[in-house]
Design a protein that fits this description.
single chain, alpha/beta, about 280 residues, two-stranded antiparallel sheet, Collagenase (Catalytic Domain)
C-alpha cells in the first residue's frame, strides 16, 4: 500500500473518531449509564433526603432518578476538612440539584464538574473593594458557586434546610440556581432567556427586586429572605429556594414572579401535593 493511501485511511479514522467524541460520545456514554438499574439503596436515600421527590408524578420521579444517576456518574465529589462523602450525601445533593432541571434539560449542568462538601459552615478569605481600597475579610459561608464549574456546600446546612420541606432555606437549590444563572456567562440574576420571555423577566424581576429593597430600607416585614436584596444574582437564587420550599408563600406575595419561575423551571411546585 502506498504511503498516501495509508495516510488517507489514518486521517479518515482519526476524523471519524474525533467527530464521534465531540458530538456523540457523551450521549452514548449517558445512554450506557442509564441502562444500569437505579440502586435500591439510592432510592431509599432519595425518599428520605429529597422530600419533594415523593410528591412528583411517577414519570417525573423516573426522570429525576435518571438525572441523579448521570449526575453522580459524571460529577466529582470531594470531602473537605475530613468530611466523608457517602452515597446518602451524593444522592441528596444530586437530587435537589436535579429538581431544577427535571423539567428542563440535564445538559444545563454540563459545565458543572466538582462538588466540594464541608461538614459545616467554613471560613474563606475574600477580597473586598471600597473605592480604590482593596481589603481582605474573613467570611463564614454555607455554600458558594463558581463559574469554573465548582459548587461548595456545607453539609450541616444542607441537612437543616434542604431536607425539611417548607423550611425557608435550601443551600443546594441556592447554589445550583447560580449555576443556571452562569449559563449565559454572567451572574446577573437572569438565566438564558430570549424574546418576550427575556423582556418580561427583566421588567417583572426588576420591580420585585426594587420592591424588596424598598421594604427593607423602610424596616417593613420582608416577603423574601433579605439576603436576596444584596444583588440580582442572589435575588434569583433566593427566589429559587422559596419557589421550591415555600411555593404558596411566594405565589401569594409575588404572583407575577411566581408565574415567571413556573415558566422557567417548567413546573408548578404549588400544584404538587404536600405531605
Amino acid at each position: 500500500m502506498s504511503p498516501v493511501f495509508v495516510f488517507a485511511v489514518f486521517a479518515a479514522v482519526f476524523i471519524t473518531l474525533a467527530v464521534f467524541y465531540l458530538f456523540f460520545y457523551r450521549s452514548w456514554q449517558r445512554e450506557r449509564e442509564l441502562k444500569q438499574p437505579f440502586p435500591k439503596a439510592w432510592k431509599k436515600h432519595l425518599q428520605s433526603t429529597v422530600p419533594l421527590y415523593r410528591q412528583l408524578p411517577t414519570q417525573l420521579q423516573q426522570t429525576l432518578r435518571d438525572q441523579i444517576q448521570l449526575f453522580i456518574a459524571e460529577k466529582h465529589f470531594y470531602g473537605c476538612d475530613g468530611f466523608e462523602v457517602n452515597d446518602r450525601v451524593r444522592v441528596a445533593i444530586a437530587g435537589h440539584a436535579c429538581l431544577l432541571t427535571v423539567m428542563r434539560s440535564y445538559t444545563d449542568y454540563d459545565l458543572v464538574r466538582s462538588i466540594l462538601v464541608y461538614p459545616d459552615v467554613y471560613r474563606v478569605q475574600a477580597s473586598e473593594r471600597d473605592g480604590m481600597v482593596v481589603g481582605v475579610s474573613d467570611q463564614v459561608r454555607a455554600g458558594e458557586a463558581s463559574t469554573r464549574g465548582q459548587v461548595v456546600l456545607a453539609w450541616a446546612e444542607c441537612e437543616s434546610g434542604a431536607m425539611h420541606l417548607g423550611s425557608q432555606h435550601n443551600v443546594i437549590l441556592h447554589e445550583f440556581a447560580h449555576q443556571l444563572d452562569y449559563l449565559d456567562g454572567t451572574a446577573d440574576g437572569a438565566p438564558p432567556l430570549s424574546g418576550e420571555q427575556a423582556r418580561e423577566w427583566q421588567q417583572t424581576m426588576t420591580i420585585a427586586y426594587d420592591n424588596l429593597r424598598h421594604s427593607l430600607r423602610h424596616h417593613r416585614k420582608s416577603w423574601l429572605d433579605p439576603y436576596g436584596a444584596t444583588q440580582p444574582a442572589e435575588f434569583f437564587a433566593v427566589l429559587t429556594e422559596t419557589f421550591y420550599q415555600q411555593p404558596q408563600h411566594l405565589k401569594e406575595q409575588q404572583p407575577a414572579v411566581y408565574d415567571l419561575l413556573c415558566d422557567f423551571y417548567r413546573i408548578d411546585p404549588g400544584e404538587l401535593p404536600r405531605s
